[in-house]
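[Meeting: bench + compute handoff]

Bench side (C.D.) handed over the final construct sequence. Compute side (W.E.) agreed to return the predicted structure before the next meeting so the bench team could plan truncations. Sequence as handed over:
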Amino acid sequence: MRLLTTILLAGLAAGAMDITYAFVVYGPLSYQMSPVQVLQSVAAGWLGKDAANAGGATTALLGLATHFMIATVMAAVFVVVATRWPALKRNAVMWALIYGFGLYVVMSYVVVPLSAAHRSQHFAADAQEIMSRLQVSFSSIRPKDRWQLLGTLFTHMVFVGLPISLLNRRRA
């Protein structure tokens, strides 16, 4: 029961911090998106962009549920692996940042490209291709987008990886 509670608390904390970041950054700081539009963009992973945008509050709720489901799965993976690998608890901050970076790579190069929200469906075949795309994408993007990339890395590492790891260490 303690393991499940840890997973749920970590998923809730990471999900809340991440979605708050998205509301602020994609709202008043850049694209002027409302929280409903941000949540609809998450639901677009299931439905596609046009259907998600047309769905109103219903698709925003689907996006919210999806967001917290993904955060909880992220927490579950870390917490379960940490029960078998004690180093994750001993070096919680370092592993949180590494895990957060890994989450960024998986979300950006596996989950989103396979979703209905992404038109090109460009699945990365292996780690070398992922690293190649990271280098190309960082060197070829506009300065404003570089800040967005760094912000996305930051939020996965600090707002997702860190609360999951620290809550796991505290409750272990």
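W.E. noted at the follow-up: The mean pLDDT is 86. C.D. will use this when planning the next construct.
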